[in-house]
Amino acid sequence: MATATLPPYSTLTKNEHADVCIVGAGIAGLTTAYLLGRAGKSVIILDDGPIVSGETERTTAHLVTALDDRYFELERLHGEKGARLAAESHAAAIDQIERTVHEEKIDCDFERVDGYLFMPPSESTEVLERELAATHRVGLTDTELGAKAPPVSFDTGPALRFPRQAQFHPLKYLAALAQAIVRDGGRIYTQTHASKIEGGEPARIETRGGSIVTADAVVVATNTPVNDLLAIHTKQAAYRTFVIGASVPVGSVHKALYWDTPDPYHYVRLQSLAQTQPSSSASDLLIVGGEDYKTGQADDAEARYSRLEQWARARFPMMTEVKFRWSGQVMETIDGMAFIGRNPMDKKNVYIATGFSGNGMTHGTIAGLLLTDLIQGRENAWAALYEPSRKTLRAAKTFAKETINMAAQYGDWVTKGDVKEDVLVAPGTGAVVRRGLHKIAVYCDAAGQLHECSAVCPHLGGIVAWNHSEQTWDCPCHGSRFDKFGKVLDGPAISNLALAQEPVV
């Protein structure tokens, strides 16, 4: 979202042991490590990139109790008690971030702001009215429905106000959290790929470099779990979401969080930049997101960025230059709640945190609070709501829909390739080529050199698709992503695409 100096950490080069090993150095992993360290536990963190180099780096950093799955829908799926616990846990997550900011004296632009949910023009206000009633039932009694959001450049129409939401600079916050982890005795190893994760007494984490970490417990906090094949991946789906950051004159946009209600919805916030600019040219950054699609099932990012900019300019005509564009990956569960707790069908000392949807910063913080309790053997009122092995019967229709969609992607095995021959792949792009019974992912670099991998995702055998915007290979089945040379970037795959000459399994 913005630049911040993240301290370098070393690569693991020898075998080590800790009370808890955490795989993944995003907000869930770092928050869990911080809280466990404060509780006196020894902690090791492993990440195959720099810290906060995954999806946490791509967040727009809304800290909310206004969840993107409406509370009246959460009541239907989880009952009023479950919806109330959802509201309580997200409020507690914001409070935890605020408390940490104050205790650690972190300069990360944290501030409380209001949030406003509004409808597209000319649509009924029924959704807002239902959500108002539901929020009051679950304990968010200070929400209120007004005639419009506060002074902005467009008439939002009726808007539901959520007080005491928040925003911050996530990279500044997490860089400070990492420093506190090391201060408390934690060990952070980057550029260290966990190639095998096994529970047991002790848990055992093997790394690509050959070093091994043993621990009393292991937490897999890699956006989506890389340590199982099916237990979780049939209950959530990966989506790409798109964001632009545009300059606006200082003070021209009321500082708040804004969301509308379509599917996919739009989300907006303001980041002050005055401290980093000369006063004569100071501007704020308007951050606008939306236009989601299922990972690997579209390749039209330019059109989506264009629509996002058009939507924003129609409502914020003071926008000038679009300075930033990026996309991120979010995991949407079938019942609207994250999966945080013991990994299903695994040893009892293996924990996961995934399914954060569009509320990653609060869900990641909830993961830290909940997993710290579970690992220490303490009861937590939220445990059943976020239990990874839960079966939400009222989400059966969504489960069936997602399963059919996933199964349909395996039809790519019998289709033709994107082009007939390798030589037709344009420089700077990639394409899938059929070679007999095999499909090959071919990337052509700027010099015309071809780089070939198997197009078969090593997770469960989906056929990857080229993403022109990100220059990646994306799997449409469960969202695994690989760089242009086949190196794994996002799970659930835990290994790279095979070289083309290797047998295709």
Q: Spans with pLDDT under 50 lasting ≥5 residues?
A: none
Which geometry do the CA atoms define?
A: globular
The N- and C-terminal alpha carbons lie at a distance of: 38 Å
- What class do helices, strands and sheet pairing give? alpha+beta
Can you summarize the main beta sheet? Answer: 9 strands, mixed
Within CATH, the superfamily of the largest domain carries the name FAD/NAD(P)-binding domain
- CATH topology (fold) name of the largest domain: FAD/NAD(P)-binding domain
Describe the structure.
The protein has three domains: 16-59 and 171-233 and 336-394, FAD/NAD(P)-binding domain, CATH 3.50.50; 104-168 and 235-333, D-Amino Acid Oxidase, Chain A, domain 2 (2-Layer Sandwich); 415-490, Rieske Iron-sulfur Protein. The chain contains eight helices and 24 strands. It has helices at 27-38, 71-104, 126-137, 170-183, 301-315, 360-375, 383-386, 396-408, and strands at residues 16-23, 43-46, 62-63, 111-118, 144-146, 159-167, 187-189, 194-198, 203-207, 212-220, 236-249, 257-260, 267-272, 283-294, 322-333, 339-342, 350-354, 429-435, 438-444, 450-454, 465-467, 472-474, 481-483, 488-490. Strands 3, 4, 5, 6, 11, 12, 13, 14 and 15 form a nine-stranded mixed sheet that branches. Strands 1, 2, 7, 8, 9, 10, 16 and 17 form an eight-stranded mixed sheet that branches. It has a four-stranded antiparallel sheet with strand order 21-22-23-24, with no helix packed on it. A hairpin with a 6-residue loop joins strand 22 (472-474) and strand 23. The chain starts with 15 loop residues before the first strand and ends in a 15-residue tail after the last strand.
